[in-house]
């Protein structure tokens, strides 16, 4: 019985860990798409954030500085995407594709320069801490490797991610700024006639999406693992994008979808560790199949922001 | 506003226009579609920068660089296409851009709702503060728009074509609201091209033609005919000349037609209609009474729920668009020529075969015969005087009138049994309108059946042989167009009995 | 078609070709700036790329081999884009095609003249289903193809890895499949090269021998044929007319009697088939097997770049594919030559696409120049 509870704890714990990078990134997706700008470049921003976070944490020997650099790195590519999409009326998907090449390319370029020609950073010793670690262990509140330890003794990024879901939800739905962001994503012309700067709102939202994607990358490179490598972020940004749509463009919905993808990873690792002869590839495939099935079932009933992907040009003509 | 000039590239939308509005006055801005009324108001509201000219509010010169400046100086605008965020509530729409907040920018929705309720009571603008825009009627949405301007303390309200989408009752209600507002000292500018409305509500009227200021008159000193002449620039005969003609066989028969709209709500509700060769049957009605769904059902663009449609006695219910066009010879001049009628990135020749690209002589063995396609277009371009006279020009590059000519050329050259013309003159200038009307009459004279759907009652009465009035998806009356009484048709359109 | 002077001006200055050329120049300029900032001599680095491509016949041969799958995945993305669909799924369709070809190439024992086309056709069919599925769920349920193809990419990824666990197909413990039969390979002179006569030939013939040192195969011919087919279908057939009409304006296409939903499925199926062919040719001409995938290999994603740089046309994809193939192969040389990171290539390509995405920027620059 204890073993079963422990196993469940292990699965929940790994689920939380692997969901976290996706949660950050897909929150970024929610913010930008709510303002009406598609950002398929999340992958590249996340990639760059993973590198910037690991490199900064390595050199400064401070995970928090790493996290900050990752966020700023992602935000930089957000800025580029915003310049293209908002100021120069770019095709948003095409610009996003470009960001994916640029984010990954520049991360590896800098990596080779800083790390002696390698496409990965050296091991980061100062990882993101586990803030509740003091509660667990011999003679502490909870025993180590027990259910509570496995579930709750997590990296700080996990808690930050959950807090961010709430904060993003609160800002989007309860504050003036959030209402303006949503209005711009639904009907930019209307917002413009009320003196709201569509350009400023969209710049802000797209840069924030990069900021969050950067955090997502770092949550991978300096928490889940302890270094950046060229294979670390392979498609996570795209999965986060899918999670955002799966979650109907809502922070709380995206959270649920990210947990689903994380859970699949959690099961995969658990079964792998146990040596259970279940085809782990089939299991790994499952969340993607589920996503398609669910989208097929619900899409008719969900409405994306009305102005999504549409170019807004002030003054018309 | 004095000496306002606005140019878009080489095109001059406004040429040296003057406009003076006093406190508590209703000032109409009269002009045809495309005369430059809306542009002028967008300049006043700060959406466009004027190329030349000055604006003074309460005697003070003002640089209206963006809407914020306009709003701050008491100018409010209700756009023709409402500027509302559909999934937002009434209150959210009203406060947007000017939100009451608690600390940290947190919205104070309670206070906002209270303010909205108070405003709506003060001016008699009844709306539910917590309702979502997407659930409201057009009339209510317009009231939200007016509340938006009042919430911002507007003293001057610009209403752009406010009656275009309203029922006669709603128009009456709007007139009352306008009276309330002027009583409270607000000034109102109404953009319109409807003469009777000007007579009804306006004190003064400024007429604009082709971007130029023509005249400003006191409304009670002029007749509708005078206004019309000033607007168009010549004496206009609204009547379309057409010979008497005997109607022939039945072309179209509709029995008990029921069609749902895109949301699954019944839009056409048990409609019966007959149309004969050699007649133009006009469908009169206010937008949103099932016209769109009726057209889509007749052209195969949507499936009908029940009922029967026959063309030349053959049942054609729920056929595909392709079958309707090529097998049953139903031609269709669509309401939205940019969205439905043309492919902007295709050239004239490619657009001309949009319905026939896969039949001889334009293709053989799945291969397009480009020579034939261009020959066809060269002929049509000449015959219908489409400018520029070059089949290789992209549809995008043509003027609205020429785009419409292209569609008419394509549809008529298909030798239809039935021609459906939906809002065929929307947004066209006077010359193009005459051309379109003539084309419809020519088709009638050639023995085709023509179904004309328009929201302009004048157009229906002037062009049609018979008039069918549609209301809530049903035909509520059929009248002879000869000597018809406009008022009684208007009443039927609004659901009253004639 | 006859070109007048103004046509040419239209095409180059304001048209798509001008945009591509300007973007390409800007891409290389930004790449040079990045290299300079990092302390490398851009001229040396670019010269290393050029030498890495043109200095030996073998290198050029490698460039073509690199370019072949990119040209075809580029065609796939371009074809769907002409119908207004964004085929992010070329990656997954490539994987499905490769897997199918590896199976058909290994399990069947047939004469070459049947085996080779059969493998390609089966791979294309399987990938067409994969692509068509995305088209179908868009047409039937309104699920955006970008999302469904991202999902289908991962499903294909794990499906391919799972296939290697089949005992008769995957060599257990190696993470690789069994090699396909000789009769399913499209290498030129693959067997003969390792005979004595072959080795002699390679030693004694300077140019041809050098070319033969690379895994030369007929893939590029198939790629060119497919490029021609794409061009022909889009511009000369009624199907092409339908697909382009849907791409430009689905509402007008529907009004004109075109079945928009069917067009979406058809277009995605053809796009899928193309990407599948790329996967098949890669297996049949280069790898002769499939291996367990650790990450997405990126053929499909690079195909997006190729399509965009090639302005979504058949001929454009050929040129862009060769450019990209050249950069990928030549770019791998600059690490050794000048010590500069190879990834400057990704920066160049990304920049080119970024500028292609915003024609307004180029127009602004041109207007500024004119005064």
Characteristic terms for this protein:
heterotrimer; A: mainly alpha; ABC transporter involved in vitamin B12 uptake, BtuC; 12 helices; globular; B: 498 residues; alpha/beta; Rossmann fold; 2 domains; six-stranded mixed beta sheet; 17 helices; 22 strands
The percentage helix of chain A is over 70%
Order of helices and strands of chain A: HHHHHHHHHHHH
Helical fraction of chain C: over 70%
Q: What is the strand tally of chain A? A: 0
Largest sheet entry of chain C: 2 strands, antiparallel
Count of folded domains of chain C: 2
The SSE string of chain C, one letter per element, is: HHHHHHHEEHHHHHHHHHHHH
CA-atom Rg of chain A in angstroms: 20 Å
Quickly give the structural class of chain A.
mainly alpha
- Number of structural units classed as domains of chain A: 1
Largest interface: A-C, 47 and 50 residues
CATH class label of the largest domain in chain C: Mainly Alpha
Biggest sheet layout of chain A: none
> Termini of chain C, distance in Å?
34 Å
In a few lines, what is going on in this structure?
Chain A is mainly α. Chain A contains twelve helices and no strands.
Explained architecture:
The complex is a heterotrimer of chains A (317), B (498) and C (371). Chain A has 12 helices and no strands. Chain A has 317 residues and is mainly α. Chain A starts with a helix and ends in a 19-residue tail after the last helix. In chain B, 33% of the residues lie in helices and 25% in strands. Chain B has 2 domains: 2-232, P-loop containing nucleotide triphosphate hydrolases (Rossmann fold, 3-Layer(aba) Sandwich); 250-493, Rossmann fold (3-Layer(aba) Sandwich). With 498 residues, chain B is of the alpha/beta class. The mean pLDDT of chain B is 87. Chain B is built from 17 helices and 22 strands. With 371 residues, chain C is mainly alpha-helical. Chain C folds into 2 domains: 7-38 and 341-371, no CATH class; 57-333, Orthogonal Bundle (ABC transporter involved in vitamin B12 uptake, BtuC), CATH 1.10.3470. Chain C has helices spanning 5-14, 16-37, 42-54, 57-82, 90-107, 112-141, 145-163, 190-193, 196-204, 206-212, 219-236, 238-248, 250-255, 260-287, 299-309, 314-331, 334-338, 344-357, 359-370, and strands at 170-171, 176-177. Chain C has a two-stranded antiparallel ribbon with strand order 1-2. In chain C, strand 1 and strand 2 (176-177) form a beta hairpin. The two termini of chain C are 34 Å apart. In chain C, 57% of the residues are buried. The model of chain C has no long low-confidence stretch (mean pLDDT 90). The chains are: A mainly alpha (317), B alpha/beta (498), C mainly alpha (371). Chains in contact: A-B, A-C, B-C. At the B-C interface, helix 10, helix 11 and strand 18 of B face helix 12 and helix 13 of C.
